[in-house]
Amino acid sequence: MNLANRITIARILLVPVIMFFLLIKVKFPHIRIEEFSITYNQIIAALIFIIAASTDSLDGYIARKRKLVTNLGKLLDPLADKLLVTAVLVSLVEMGKVDAWIVIVIISREWAVTGLRQIALLEGTVMAASKWGKAKTAAQITAIIALLINNFPFTFLDIPFDIIASWVAAIITLYSGIEYFVKNKHVIDFSDKTQ
């Protein structure tokens, strides 16, 4: 249980904390600026999400820099990322802030690629993250933050940045998933070896 793995576990433990602040049925005070309104619990959830999302790069950097890469870390790191994104997106659907179809596209891609990675590992192949995979992560985090903070400050400019960012995240997520499967189609053997 090295430092990198502890940071990853901390990210997992922050998931229910974020969900608590997003889904708790207690009326928190609002901050109002003209027509813009946001609750304190949303601000807290957004801050915790930003901290949790930023630890993704940190634990990987520490593991590589200090040569602390472990099998546990290889398992927990992508799991922590997917738990964080999935939990927050489902919470945002519950809050009526994002369309369910966008969340379904994102979650389906995440778990499909995870399955492909597991098959590749069984075959002794490691699937490296692509540039589109990294763009997908950045797009998802950007969209989630915009949704969490009620489109601030773009709401004052009448720009639906949160909706646009959600669509962009869904499109990039879908494209990156297709790219993974196309580039690694050799990993999946559809031939029937029993005959």
Automatic annotation (TrEMBL):
It catalyses: a CDP-1,2-diacyl-sn-glycerol + sn-glycerol 3-phosphate = a 1,2-diacyl-sn-glycero-3-phospho-(1'-sn-glycero-3'-phosphate) + CMP + H(+). It comes from Paenibacillus aestuarii. This is CDP-diacylglycerol--glycerol-3-phosphate 3-phosphatidyltransferase. Its EC number is 2.7.8.5. It is a multi-pass membrane protein. Belongs to the CDP-alcohol phosphatidyltransferase class-I family. The keyword DNA repair does not apply. Pathway: Phospholipid metabolism; phosphatidylglycerol biosynthesis; phosphatidylglycerol from CDP-diacylglycerol: step 1/2; Lipid metabolism. Keywords: Lipid biosynthesis, Lipid metabolism, Membrane, Phospholipid biosynthesis, Phospholipid metabolism, Transferase, Transmembrane, Transmembrane helix. The chain crosses the membrane at residues 6-24, 44-63, 137-157, 163-182. It is found in: Membrane. This protein catalyzes the committed step to the synthesis of the acidic phospholipids. GO terms for molecular function: CDP-diacylglycerol-glycerol-3-phosphate 3-phosphatidyltransferase activity. It holds the Pfam family CDP-OH_P_transf.
